[in-house]
Amino acid sequence: MTLTQLKYVITVAGQNSLNDAAKVLFISQPSLSAAIRSLEKEIGFDVFIRSKNGIMLTAKGAEFIGYAKSVMEQYELLDAKYISQTDVKKTFSVSMQHYTFAVNAFVELVKQYGMDEYEFEVHETKTYEVIENVKNHKSEIGILYLNDFNRNVLTKLFWEYGLGFQPLFECGVYVYMWKGHPLADRKKIALEELEEFPCLGFDQGQHNSFYFAEEVLSTYGYKRFIRANDRATLLNLMVGLNGYTLCSGIICEDLNGEDYCAVKLKSDERMTIGYISRKEAPVSAIGQKYLEEIAKYRDKLLD
Q1: 145: closest CA among 246, 59, 226?
Q2: pLDDT given at position 290
Q3: Given the DSSP bridges, would you call strands 141-146 and 48-51 parallel, antiparallel or unpaired?
Q4: Positive or negative, the Cα torsion across 227, 233, 238, 239?
Q5: How far apart are CA 216 and CA 253, in angstroms?
Q6: Whose CA is closest to 189, among 245, 147, 234, 148?
Q7: Ranges of the chain with pLDDT below 70
Q8: If residue 67 lies in a helix (H) or strand (E), which one and from where to where?
Q9: Which residues, in sequence order, are bridge partners of residue 177?
Q10: Are the C-beta atoms of 97 and 281 separated by less than 8 Å?
Q11: What is the pLDDT of residues 4-56, one digit of tens each?
Q12: What angle do CA 203, 287, 136 make, to 5 degrees?
């Protein structure tokens, strides 16, 4: 396996066409095809599925491309520093469930490091995609939660994907709603008191299993339930329909504004907020700094 072969497969994956990739690489299509066939023979599986309509990555191929990109990025950094001596920006990427505090910590990180030396990516997305992004090297760190209900299923998935989970803090469960909600002035709320109001949750796409739900108590028999794809829509539904969702209780008014509040749910349920990362790769210095920024929110927990 050579760096040239890795460059070839990454380019083909980006173009989704051998002919287009060959033009980008300034080589002939037969030469490119032969190089990829040779690599696939060496690693023992097909990276691409070939058809009349073009090519697409296999499941193993997508995983391989993630590792290949990581290797090439490290090589480019070495080349820039010691051989070409050119300035190449380092990258940092994080994926997360829909946590305002995780976005806020990212904002503080960017402010501290600036964007002259680093290129940043943040993916606020579905639970399974958080896991996939870390597995496939798209993100260095993934922020999500575990509790007694999903722990065994997700921990098994982490193990299969070569990922490790580290806790950051533990918290109770809160009802997140707008301050104009009829129950917003309560000190504690029982689930039964919320039956006439729609519970709001994040759609998890094809992995819409209870185990991948971002909201705890996902198996509860809610009388009214609405799924949304993004946080902005969820906030609008809170105001427009007196909806609510269940959360960690950490309020970030800097991003969501001052129109929302968190009220303690009458429940003994606990959730552990933590991060996943690849077992074979230590968290980078900037990654550690990001985790330190998130850890500061321990002091903002309401319970």
Answers
A1: 246
A2: 96
A3: unpaired
A4: negative
A5: 22
A6: 245
A7: 80-81, 84-88, 300-303
A8: helix 59-78
A9: 261
A10: no
A11: 888 888 888 888 778 888 888 889 988 888 988 898 899 898 988 888 777 88
A12: 50
How many Cβ atoms sit within 10 Å of the Cβ of residue 109? 22
- For 54-196, where are the E strands, in sequence order? 54-57, 90-96, 118-124, 141-146, 163-171, 174-178, 188-189
Q: What is the DSSP string of 254-280?
A: HHH-SSEEEEEES----EEEEEEEETT
Task: Quote the CA–CA distance of 97 and 105 in Å, as a whole number.
Answer: 14
Amino acid at 67: Y
- pLDDT at residue 163, rounded to an integer: 94
- Order of strands, edge to edge, in the sheet holding 260-265? 188-189, 260-265, 174-178, 245-247
Residue 200 to residues 206, 235, 239, 265, Cα–Cα distance (Å): 18, 9, 12, 15
Q: Where are the beta strands (DSSP E) in 5-63?
A: 48-51, 54-57
225/129 Cα distance (integer angstroms): 23
